[in-house]
Every structure is written in structure tokens, then in C-alpha cells.
Amino acid sequence: MRDEAAKRVELVFSLFDANGNGVLDSEDFDLMTGRVLEAATASDDGAQDAVRAAFRRYWTTLSTELDANGDGVISVEEFRPFVLDPERFGPTITEFAEALSALGDPDGDGLIERPLFVSLMRAIGFEEANIHALFDAFGPDADDRVTVATWAAGIKEYYAPDLAGIPGDQLVTARAV
């Protein structure tokens, strides 16, 4: 696993620990889902349902694959190797990437405007300066929009253990706000 990928995993674990108890549990995914949906009020019911299902699947996949002792929580040590395993976690990430990026396109034009992108990413817990750096790395058009496909691909790349120098690395670089 590349150092960049390890840093991305550590960050996503800390963000998904929405209740701050040091482990991932089902409450974390309920809290995260609520925050993301609150930022996506313009999205239709179908898009919101898809995000709910994607967060649910994310948790279900983690708990099924990693919670061998049945205690209902996932530690960072359990999380690290699994989440970067494309064969074990790839389909879950694909569903999550497609649902989250579609949520950012409430008008269905295939484009995501910066303000909604920022709102959704802040709801997940990323730092605003890093969110803007990521959006810029995606190469927005003259109207400050990126495609749904670009964001979905960026999410999938974020979880790739062998990639470095990707737009998602902008999220783990310390930046002044």
C-alpha cells in the first residue's frame, strides 16, 4: 500500500467515526447519512434513497467482512487493510461513489456546481480548503462545474491502494483555511 493511500484511509476512518468514539459502528453511518442528506435538500427522493442505501451497504459490508467477534464495531486496525482491497470492497465503493456524485446533481444535467460539492463534502467532514483544492484538481469548466462521472471516478480512485498523485490526495494535504 502506498503512503498516500494509507493517509487517505486514516482520514476516511476518522471522518466516518462520526460519533467520535474511536471505532466505526452503525450509529456513525446513520449520523453521516443524516448530515449528507441535510446538505442535499434539492436532490430528489430517488437520489436520497440511493445515498441512504449506499451508506447502509458500506456499513453492512464492513460489519460483515470485519466484525469477526460480533461486537458491532470496527477498529482502525480492522479497517485499514480491508477498505483498500478492491476485490473485497470495490463494489461497495462503486455504489457509494455513484450515489454520492449523483446526489450532487439535483437538476440531472450531469454537472456538479462547486457550492453543492462543498456542502456535501463538508457534511462528510472534509476541511473546506481541501475540498476546494480537490474540486480544482478535478478541472472544473468555465462555469465552475465538474461532471458527475469525474467525481465518481475520483471517489473510486481515493480507495485504490496503488495510486498516488490523484485528485483525492488533495483531501489529506494540510492547507490553511
Q: Can you describe this structure?
A:
This protein is mainly alpha-helical. Helix content is 61%, strand content 3%. Strands 1-2 form a two-stranded antiparallel sheet.
Outline of the structure:
This protein is mainly alpha-helical. The chain has helices at 3-16, 26-39, 45-66, 76-83, 86-103, 114-124, 128-137, 148-158, and strands at residues 111-113, 145-147.
Produce the secondary structure layout.
Blueprint: H1 3-16, H2 26-39, H3 45-66, H4 76-83, H5 86-103, E1 111-113, H6 114-124, H7 128-137, E2 145-147, H8 148-158
Antiparallel strand pairs: 1-2
Short key terms for the protein model shown above:
177 residues; 2 strands; globular; two-stranded antiparallel sheet; 8 helices; single chain; mainly alpha
In percent terms, what proportion of residues is strand? under 5%
Number of strands: 2
- Helix and strand run: HHHHHEHHEH
Helix fraction, binned, reads: 55-70%
* Radius of gyration, in angstroms, nearest whole number: 15 Å
Instruction: Output mean pLDDT.
Output: 90
Distance between the termini: 30 Å
Tally of contiguous helical segments: 8
Shape: globular
Give the strand order, joined by hyphens, for the main sheet: 1-2
**Classification by helices and strands:** mainly alpha
Low-confidence stretches: none
Largest sheet: 2 strands, antiparallel
Oligomer: single chain
